[in-house]
Amino acid sequence: MVPTPALPRIRRPHPGHHFQEIPLKLATYAALGSLALCLTLSTVTPLQAQTASSKPVPSLEQIFRAQPYRGADAKDASFSRSGRYLAYLWNPVGEPGTDLYVHDSKTGKTLRITSPQVMAAFEAPEDMERFAKKLKQRDAELAERQAREVAQQAYLRGEKVDLAQWENAALETVKKELADKKAKDDAQKAADKAEADAEKQAMAALAAKRAGKPAPAAAAASSAAAPASAASAADAAKETWELRDELKNKLARDKLKPGDLYPGVAQVMWARKADELIFQYRGGLYRWKAGDAAPTALLASQRQLRIVAYTPDDAGFVYMDETRVLRSRFAQGGSQVLNRELVIGDDEPKKYRIDQTTISEDGRWMSLVARAPLVPAGPDGKPGTQPTGRQVEIMNYSERWATAKKVDREVSDDKRREKPLALYIRAVPAAGEAPHKQPAPVFTNGGGDVWFEMSDVAWARDGSRYAFSTWEREKELLRIYIGKADENAKPELVLERRGDVGHEVVNVMQPEFTPDGKTLVVGLDEAGWRQPYAIDVASKALRPLLKGEFEAHDVIGFTPDSRSLFVLANAGDTAAMNLFKVDMASGAMKAVGAPGEYHRSAVVSYDGRWASANAGNWAQRPELKLFSTDGAAKPATLTDSTDKAWAAVDVLRPERFHYSNRHGDRIEGYVFKPAGWKASDRRPAVVYVYGGPLNDRHIVEVDSFQNTAYLFGMYMAAKYGYVMVSVDPRGHSNYGRKFSDANWEQAGEPQAQDLEDLVKLLPTQFGVDAQRVGLNGWSFGGFQTQYTLYTKPDLFAAGIAGAGPTEWENYNSWYSGRTIGKTERSKPNLRKYSLLPLAKGLKKPLMLVHGMQDPNVLYQDTVNVYRALLDSGKESLVDLFLDPDGVHGLGGTVKPAAWHRKYEAFWLQHLGRTSQP
């Protein structure tokens, strides 16, 4: 469905020993076709026109191979204050963890600062040995999984294959380990017995000596060989089922866990002036300066330390442990606690404790967000018993007897347990300065049974003021505050909106000051699109910064003169976010990145001259790229994250299209057309849909290689001649408020209408047989697939619904209360959107798919709708495909190749094959 809301992000650091120089590579770009298209339905080919491929069609085992073709994207890029250096975390395909790389824009060279070999200088040898051993295990497991999947399909084709070879080899390993353990245990027992016999003889000799008697003769050495041999024979005679039990235990014991593999660097922070940085690795802090041959350890403790900032003079650094913010100087030992814990009097009802600390860039001020327990301590000073929330049980069937684990679940009719909140403003103490008297909070919220959200506190660069926003869901109340750097002054309310606030605005409401501190930039959707607005700090006047119907809610940075800002926006192409430089006076926009590429995780240098982002598309897979914001230098590609073997799998690419629905809204999609396709064909087709609001994501994105929509779509078109369509109906995010709010209090209906309008066009525009069109979706798309098949039962010939929330009253309230409908604490009123009463409308075959360990959309959602289908006589129409160990994206016993083999068989059974060659 939707992921749990992300925790606040923290930047991170890195180390190095010998630096590896990486040659600079220039980016190449595919031309972007025109988006000026006709009204009813048009196609656009911004990346590559459809051409017949001479490559053989890859198998599902090749497409979804165990070792992914794609490594992790570069992350947490940041520029040095001078703008010369760009640090980022990344590693090539197959390497574990994320290491620190630094690119020098002056020389065009990239240095790898950390690696397992480099960090071995700071690690215990046992840890490095464990990392190497577990990496070898991971690679062996992936290789075996791939070999097994290939062999299983060969067996089904009638080839002679030994499917037991892997288990037999594993059982032989178990036998050897058991024998080795037995031999070791026997040797230890023999040694223990010999030592006991010797001790007994010594004590007997001592007793004889004291009694004046001769020492007794030593007992003959007992032989443990016979019993040991008999025991070994017994082990060797263990039946196969017993060895399988031992193997199961071994696999559980050796299963890869978080922390088993080399993690790399977790956080980086540049100095305020110098070209140097501090990075965090495995909880310790390390320092690297441009030109140094290796990093040096600052604090290599066993605690989870996090770097916050350099001190204003770069002579020290500020960091955090689990609860405290501390300051240290490079030239001297010791640390000073900056955010000493709050002192709350015995008579104060709310016992606040610090939850979050933010320090201004100039290092002079800090904000402390504190929270208090809902139940105060008792008269004896012991903590009060806090109310616990709802927990649901998830069954595990992997052992002999089923067991249950409990997971937290807050649904729409649950009473909320929002902790009381207080915001304190404090001056950061100077080195050695005595603590000041604690000020009172400048802002509070009483918490309780309310839905209250507060953004992070943003400071002006000069530390003169701060800002934050709040959202109260029940009141539909959005507020933005600006406060002065004063420990006792209350912040001023500068903007209030009640009722007319888009449901997707709250997630992007993070205020930010311009460098001169005169303007506060906030994200609003006053005109129906999430875009930046400027609040004049002096006059409190609000004005839009952009013009046009597009999404632009991610402000990246500013030029030093505060005249321009940088923002990610989908202006001109809803499927491709670009990085734009915007004149804050006129709203004029200039693209920094290439048209037709999706830009993610963008950052801009402090001086505004450089930018970087992970950018790419279907023709050129995304990589970290460096741009000069004035276009003076050619973009440079800094990473290489895709296995070269991907080229053999990349046999077909989609075409973009859009159509107008019954309301005149433009609906975006893409389609895989097979080689030899003609508009007059009558081919089977499958439509893939998601359909729900989800922050800033949708299906039609030019850099998305989603498993089912893209990879499986490519496969079915190339192998069977299917027309495979993916579409973004109303309900999706990043198409403006009209789309993201469309789902409100009519869940699934606008999407179903848009799908109906699409199906009407398929026979004439896409060469599709109208009687052989299937519908598929996952998560919200699983809900949408079911809703459409139940309410428009003759529209599609069959459907596959994966992990769909069928009972919205049981889904997480942070999502359902924001996107489905207004909730009530007193009753589960979202049940009005349940699919269970609609299930009786099904007429066509439907396969329900779910991971039985899913903590997000509970497996019970599928069980309950399955029961309703059986109860209404649909047993011959409905199939159930379950992953006993799978979670929301499966990932248990059912791997992607097997998952899509099931899809393949279902579509071929119910939609048939194409009559075209």
From TrEMBL:
Domain Peptidase S9 prolyl oligopeptidase catalytic as annotated: residue spans: 714-913
One Pfam family cited in the UniProt record for this chain: DPPIV_N
Species of origin: Roseateles depolymerans
Record GO terms (molecular function): dipeptidyl-peptidase activity; serine-type peptidase activity
Domain annotation Dipeptidylpeptidase IV N-terminal: ranges: 455-609
SUPFAM superfamilies, A to Z: alpha/beta-Hydrolases, DPP6 N-terminal domain-like
Any Gene Ontology biological process: proteolysis
Name this protein carries in UniProt: S9 family peptidase
